[in-house]
Amino acid sequence: MKLIGSKLEQEIREQLNKSNQSLFKSEEKRRLLEVIRSSYPEMNTAYIVHWIPEQGEDIYKILINDSIIAEVELDRYNDLEPIVATKTISQYLQGLSKQCRITLAVALDLAKQDLKNVN
Q: Which among 37, 68, 69 has a CA at the least distance from the CA of 51?
């Protein structure tokens, strides 16, 4: 999907930047970051592209670098082991709504910028 610089894309970009900052800097996301780092040691950047707060767990879909989507299910009470699954970008795109496709496109753009700065 080609980005056009729309107002919606700018809003999504702001949300994704906040999620990135929250993931790497906030105490409340520390456990999630630890799970990601242990599962994906090659991670240089990550963006939460989707989050579903359930009753007993939180389900995150996270773009890792610019190549894979990690699906992480974290138990809210730390009783259960986190469940981590990996999808390719093309697998994740299947059946995705237009809004979610735009979110992913913006996240990919941000990740590519981050990776340029790392290298």
A: 69
Torsion angles phi and psi, residue 2, rounded to 5: -90, 130
Residue type, 21: Q
Distance in angstroms (rounded) separating the CA atoms of residues 41 and 44? 9
Mean pLDDT of 59-78: 93
Range of the domain at 97: 7-118
pLDDT in tens, 17-66: 999 999 999 998 999 999 999 999 999 999 999 999 988 899 999 999 99
Q: Side-chain half-sphere of 56: how many Cα atoms within 13 Å?
A: 6
* Torsion sign (Cα): 98, 112, 94, 16: negative
Give the whole-angstrom CA distance, residue 101 versus residue 19: 17
CA 27 to chain centre: 17
> Would 1 be classed as within a structural domain?
no
Longest C-alpha distance within the chain, in Å? 44
Q: Quick check: is 2 in a domain?
A: no
If one counts the domains in the chain, the total is: 1
